[in-house]
Design goal:
Elements (H helix, E strand, L loop, with lengths): L6 H19 L6 H8 L3 H7 L3 H22 L6 H10 L6 H16 L4 H24 L11 H21 L6 H16 L6
Length: 200
């Protein structure tokens, strides 16, 4: 009896092969031939799932977005809203090997998106999704009644910039931007927003 292959699982395995190649060689090392070899497929089999190399890259980039979104959506709400927000932000940061690899792959795709229209569209969509998430996170935070009203758009942009900076630092200088440092920075920022830290 012929082996039944789950096409979506096979496509995800190919995308993960692309990620491994990017981590070892950079995007310059990704080609139809190298991806097929890394995934353990013939080039003909690879083309059955992806017509072009651009299709492979687009799917691999989309999978990064999907994995992050799925992790965030799977989080259980905490009794304390600030803790829920912190746990959500943690899923976006390179706090362990898997998330660091994911961030490195994402950065490589972001650079390539400057010259690849399909990847650029995905990059822009992901930017809007994360910006919206940051806005919802800021809006969910408790504020003392004496506090001035937040400019949600500005604070969402500030939180996004903070996350982006920590991700970049975590990739470029993991010896300095350690998980504990990143968490301290985020915790301090959330304390400012909720008024639970030092006086503003």
């Amino acid at each position: 009896m012929p082996k039944v292959v789950d096409p979506q699982a096979r496509r995800a395995a190919v995308a993960e092969a692309v990620w491994r190649l990017i981590l070892r060689r950079g995007l310059e090392g990704v080609s139809v031939r190298t991806v097929a070899a890394e995934a353990g497929l013939s080039m003909g089999s690879l083309r059955y799932y992806f017509a072009t190399q651009a299709d492979v890259l687009t799917f691999a980039m989309q999978l990064v977005i999907d994995r992050v979104r799925d992790r965030v959506q799977a989080l259980d709400p905490q009794p304390d809203t600030t803790t829920t927000v912190l746990r959500t932000v943690e899923e976006l940061l390179p706090l362990d090997d898997d998330r660091r690899a994911e961030a490195e792959v994402w950065l490589a795709f972001t650079v390539r998106a400057q010259t690849e229209p399909t990847l650029r569209a995905l990059r822009d969509t992901s930017y809007e999704l994360l910006q919206d998430l940051c806005r919802r996170l800021v809006a969910a935070l408790p504020r003392p009644t004496r506090a001035a009203a937040l400019d949600l758009d500005a604070e969402a942009e500030r939180l996004y910039a903070l996350i982006d900076g920590l991700v970049l630092h975590g990739i470029v200088r993991p010896d300095r931007a350690t998980p504990s440092l990143m968490l301290d920075v985020v915790t301090g920022h959330l304390a400012q927003l909720t008024g639970s830290g030092a006086e503003q």
